[in-house]
């Protein structure tokens, strides 16, 4: 562990004990980014320009989106991610605090810059992301430094884009916490990650990587979910291409089709889904009730521009 990481770990522990000391519902381990969302009628070709019809500048990144959703649903939530040593990072954390997210353990990368996502959305919902996440991945030492926070929560959501995902999931699992994985595990860590997991959620592309089958029908998704359940998790949520979301658990499953409401931008819908699923399970709701809450949260996120959820407490 470097001196900086040691210092961060100490500050995290001390400030955590001083400021909170109680139990948390959820910790989210994942990306934090400045999210610039631009709506255009149509993407211009090279050497051409388009007018921006609507612009939003948001606290974004999957980790932050999920934490915002958890807080909006009334859960106490902490975020573990990385910001740079810049004004953008300071502003994003101020927004996170205003969103009632505990950011005590967020790592400030000295001389680093905060991640940036530019999300260009065409009318009709086709999105393109330009992403700069260089130097913003959590290290295993930083995850270890946040152990005190990870084990203080009932549930820990881990985004599998993080190389230190297994370290975070293992700490949570060993402490008996609910481990919720978002994404597709890298092949070399697949067995270990699935063995730590209580819940796994994958969008259609991630589900194809996770299961080896294209999610082109509900039947395929049910079969694929059953095979993932056999590897350890007690709940699996898989998106079925253009159709809806399948939720499966050892003695049941439910498929919830997408509503016909117009889709502006699906960005963040998966983040709302996993957050609502985790909040419901943490409150002791049944798998089916949690699944319905999750699908409703996803559905309510596709109607607006950008990944920031807008969920009530209902
Ligand atoms: N028309 C729709 N109605 C409701 N939900 C939708 C619709 N289209 C997509 N979704 C939701 O969007 C999710 C997209 O997930 P994902 O790609 O992981 O989003 P992100 O990572 O941006 O949060 C799907 O799992 C589904 O729940
Ligand atoms: Mg996703």
TrEMBL record:
GO terms for biological process: phosphate-containing compound metabolic process. GO terms for molecular function: kinase activity. Keywords: Kinase, Transferase. One of its GO terms (cellular component) is cytosol. SUPFAM superfamilies: Ribokinase-like (SSF53613). Pfam families: PfkB (PF00294). Residues 25-308 form the Carbohydrate kinase PfkB domain. Belongs to the carbohydrate kinase PfkB family. This is Ribokinase. It comes from Actinokineospora fastidiosa. The gene is rbsK.
């Amino acid at each position: 562990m470097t001196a900086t990481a040691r210092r961060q770990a100490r500050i995290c522990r001390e400030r955590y004990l001083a400021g909170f000391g109680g139990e948390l519902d959820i910790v989210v381990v994942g990306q934090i980014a400045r999210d610039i969302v631009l709506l255009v009628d149509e993407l211009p070709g090279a050497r051409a320009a388009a007018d921006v019809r609507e612009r939003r500048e948001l606290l974004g990144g999957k980790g932050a989106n999920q934490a915002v959703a958890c807080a909006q649903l009334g859960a106490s939530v902490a975020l573990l991610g990385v910001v740079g040593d810049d004004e953008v990072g300071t502003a994003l954390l101020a927004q996170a605090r205003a969103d009632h997210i505990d950011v005590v353990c967020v790592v400030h990368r000295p001389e680093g810059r905060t991640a940036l996502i530019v999300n260009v959305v065409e009318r009709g919902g086709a999105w393109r992301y330009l992403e700069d996440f260089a130097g913003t991945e959590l290290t295993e030492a930083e995850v270890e430094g946040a152990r005190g926070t990870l084990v203080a929560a009932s549930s820990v959501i881990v985004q599998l884009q993080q190389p230190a995902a297994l370290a975070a999931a293992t700490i949570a699992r060993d402490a008996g916490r609910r481990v919720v994985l978002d994404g597709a595990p890298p092949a070399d860590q697949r067995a270990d990650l699935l063995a730590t997991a209580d819940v796994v959620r994958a969008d259609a592309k991630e589900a194809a990587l996770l299961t080896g089958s294209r999610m082109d029908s509900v039947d395929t998704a049910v079969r694929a979910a059953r095979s993932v359940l056999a590897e350890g998790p007690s709940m699996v949520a898989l998106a079925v291409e253009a159709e809806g979301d399948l939720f499966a658990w050892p003695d049941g499953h439910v498929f919830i089709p997408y509503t016909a409401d117009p889709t502006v931008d699906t960005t963040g819908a998966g983040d709302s889904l996993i957050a609502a699923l985790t909040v419901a399970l943490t409150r002791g709701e049944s798998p089916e009730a949690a699944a319905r809450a999750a699908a409703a949260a996803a559905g309510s996120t596709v109607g607006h521009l950008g990944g920031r959820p807008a969920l009530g407490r209902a």
